[in-house]
Structures are given as C-alpha cells and as structure tokens.
Structure to design on (270 residues):
C-alpha cells in the first residue's frame, strides 16, 4: 500500500492487511520515525474501506523490544516541551490503533517489552507463542508506562497491571493468556499455522457486521445498564438487520448457502 522505512504494510487478496514492524536489526524497537510511520500506516488502513481486518506483527525473532535505547538517550537530553511532543505522538498512535474501525489481531513472538505491550493491548485480540516474553520494563530504567497504561489496564485489569508495572517481572505466553493479554498461547512451532486458522475464521464473518460489533462494544463499555445504552443497542440491531450484509446473511442462512462475502475467501494469499 505504501513504502515505509521501519514498517511494511501488506494487503492480502482475501481482503485484510498485515502491518509488520520491520526494524529487525533493532529488534523492532520504537523510535520517533517508527511511531510516525505507524500513525500514517493506520491512517491508510482506516481509509481503505475494502479491508476486513488488520494483523499487527513483528519481523524476525522479536515482536518488539520496546523503545529504542538510542532514541531514549536523545529524549533524556531534551527539554520537557519536546518530550511532551514525543509523548503526544505515542498517545496518538495508541489511541488511533484502539479506535480503528476494523478488527485488529496482534501476533507475538520473542520479546514484547515496554510500549510493545501498549500495541498488543490496543488490539482487539492477540495470540502468541508460549515462549514469548512480556515485560512492563519501564521502572527498571527509571520511567513509567504512562501513555500505554489505560490500554494495558483495559486488557489485563488494574490488579495485574499494578503488579507487572511495579515489579517489571517478565512473564511468558501462557501467563499472558491467563491474565487476558493474549487470547491464546501456542507452541512456537505451531504459531504460523494458528495465525492462518484465525485468518480463515475471521474471513467467514460479515465485514460490515464486524465493524458494527466493534463500534457496539466500544459503546457498551463495561456493560453498565442505562436508558441511553438500551436505546443505542435497540437502534444498532435494527440498523444492521436492514443493511445489505444483514439482509444477505439472513437470506443465506435461510437458503442454506454461504453468504456472498465468503466467496472472496477462496483467493490464494500472496
């Protein structure tokens, strides 16, 4: 879709995109350029109405080692205002990923440290390898997981976030699944096969319905019942029932045939 220095944004003919962190020589660590390019890449995804979902991955051995140390050293030498600008860029990235209209799936191998946990937490779903290593490592170098903290709390809860943010303990894929950071954890040798299974399963679903469901769940939040939420959910189901894909899905179900959006899933991936 476009060329970047630190990323690859690849589209699959079946109708989804994969956003690869691609600073393999730096273990996909963040710097200012990568953060800016991630924002631009997400803008491209958001503007492409043909995409069904987005997968976020890291090239090479590691998903992401967190912040690039050379960049962090430069930041330490800058004033408060410049550091605030850097923080706002990172926040824009995290909020844009969290608010993306299409479903998002992170796939994690190797190390996922610091801000990488923010990327994973901003995705709707995440899977990873049993031997992956996760760490909120900021306190080890005198910092705090500030910008990413709301998303990590949403993903794993306040209590677990307190533990791992204050101890900087490392934990593996199975523990990440237990606390909700990962949806599933697999043996490393099985990860690619499992990624394809997730892709095939997501491709069975109505693209419009997945977008509508993501918007619905954002509005529902923690599920607190209010008159306004009741009205919102009533309108949501009425709208999607009369939509083109809603009508097609109901007809296909009653006629015992695949809906038309599944016809595209037979294309071979590049």
């Amino acid at each position: 879709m476009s060329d970047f220095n630190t990323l690859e944004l690849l589209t699959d003919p079946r109708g989804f995109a994969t956003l690869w962190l691609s600073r393999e020589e730096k273990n996909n660590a963040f710097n200012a350029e990568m953060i800016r390019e991630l924002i631009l890449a997400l803008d491209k995804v958001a503007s492409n109405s043909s995409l069904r979902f987005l997968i976020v991955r890291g090239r090479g051995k590691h998903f992401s080692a967190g912040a690039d140390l050379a960049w962090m050293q430069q930041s330490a030498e800058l004033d408060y205002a410049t550091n605030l600008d850097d923080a706002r860029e990172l926040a824009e990235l995290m909020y844009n990923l969290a608010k993306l209209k299409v479903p998002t799936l992170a796939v994690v191998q190797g190390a996922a440290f610091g801000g990488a946990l923010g990327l994973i937490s901003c995705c709707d779903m995440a899977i990873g390898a049993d031997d992956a290593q996760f760490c909120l490592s900021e306190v080890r170098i005198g910092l705090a997981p500030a910008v990413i903290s709301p998303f990590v709390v949403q993903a794993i809860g306040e209590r677990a976030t307190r533990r791992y943010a204050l101890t900087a303990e490392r934990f593996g894929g199975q523990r990440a699944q237990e606390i909700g950071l990962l949806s599933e954890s697999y043996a490393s040798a099985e990860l690619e096969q499992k990624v394809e299974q997730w892709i095939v399963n997501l491709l069975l679903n109505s693209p419009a319905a997945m977008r509508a469901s993501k918007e619905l769940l954002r509005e529902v939040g923690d599920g607190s019942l209010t008159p306004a939420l009741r009205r919102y959910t009533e309108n949501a189901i009425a709208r999607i029932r009369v939509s083109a894909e809603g009508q097609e899905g109901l007809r296909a179900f009653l006629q015992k045939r695949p809906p038309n959006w599944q016809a595209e899933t037979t294309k071979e991936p590049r």
Q: What stands out?
A: Residues 11 and 17 are 4 Å apart (CA to CA).
